Each structure stands twice: as structure tokens, then as C-alpha cells.
Amino acid sequence: MTCPVTIRIQQDDFDTAREIASLTQGRTDIGAVVSFSGICRGDEDQDKIAALTLEHYPGMAEEEIGRHVAEAVARWPLDGVTVIHRVGRITPGQNIVLVVTASQHRQAAFEAAEFLMDYLKTSAPFWKKEESATGTGWVEAHERDDQAAARWTES
């Protein structure tokens, strides 16, 4: 069986349980499912966040995510992958991103999910604007995210 892959960029919210069920329904080859849900926080460095606005480059974003999903499928024995990333205005407590990886064994599912999230945090073509009481501004990249992603290219 080939590895089923779902990649969606959307404004609408998603249901994590429904996405996992969709990936695993009727499957007896899957022994582990790992999911990561990124949720909008209500503060950043003691500054209250009113909302995030996420933008992307349509077409390019899906293609880039697909390229990294293909790399994950080549690196780990995966039996399914779902990546959903929201765009538009998102308020604290709302979902931003979902990564689901399925495999026969947990280690592959965990590592592939971490790999994909590290990529999404550092290299995916999304831009995030933050609204707070002190104003509105684009969110800068964090060195900690770059360091996390670097481990996948180290020998």
C-alpha cells in the first residue's frame, strides 16, 4: 500500500479526532498515530495577543509542504500523513496547524511528526502577523526553531 497523504491549507478550523479517524479508518496496518496540534496562544513575552493573521503563497505552500512530506515518507516507514495549516485571522485558543503521522511503530511516527513540525516552523512559506495592545507586527523567526530543524540535516 502506498502512503496516503493529505495536505490542506484552509481558513476553516479542523477537527483533530475526525482527521485521525479519516486517516486510520479500516486500516489494520497502523500501530501508531502521532498528532501535533498548534494552537494560538494568548500571550507572547508578557504581551497579550488579540489575534494572529497567517498568510501564505497559494500553490507554493502546498508544493513545499508536499516536498517535505515526501522526504518524511522516504526517511521513515510511514503509513499515512496529514498536514493541515490554517490561514487568515486566528484568535487565542483556536487551532493553527495539525500534523498527523501514522506508522506500524511509534518511533517512526514520532520522528516524522517532529521533522514535519520543525520544517513548518522554520521553512514553510507562511507569514504571521501578530495583533496586540502594543500594535501589530510581523513575527520574526526564532533561533530555537532553527536549531531544532538543524538536527535533521546533521550527520
How is this structure best summarized?
This protein is α+β, with helices and mostly antiparallel strands.
Low-confidence segments, given as residue ranges, are none
Count all strands and give the number.
Answer: 9
Structural class: alpha+beta
Q: In percent terms, what proportion of residues is strand?
A: 35-45%
Arithmetic mean pLDDT: 90
Structure description:
The chain is α+β, with helices and mostly antiparallel strands. It is 32% helix and 37% strand. It is built from four helices and nine strands. The protein has helices at residues 16-24, 60-75, 106-122, 143-150; strands at 5-10, 32-39, 43-44, 47-56, 78-86, 88-90, 95-103, 126-132, 135-138. The strands form two sheets. Strands 3, 4, 6, 8 and 9 form a five-stranded antiparallel sheet that branches. A four-stranded mixed sheet has the order 1-5-7-2, sandwiched between helices. A hairpin with a 2-residue loop joins strand 8 (126-132) and strand 9. Helix 2 packs antiparallel against helix 3 and helix 3 packs across helix 4 (143-150). The protein is globular and about 50 Å long. The model has no long low-confidence stretch (mean pLDDT 90).
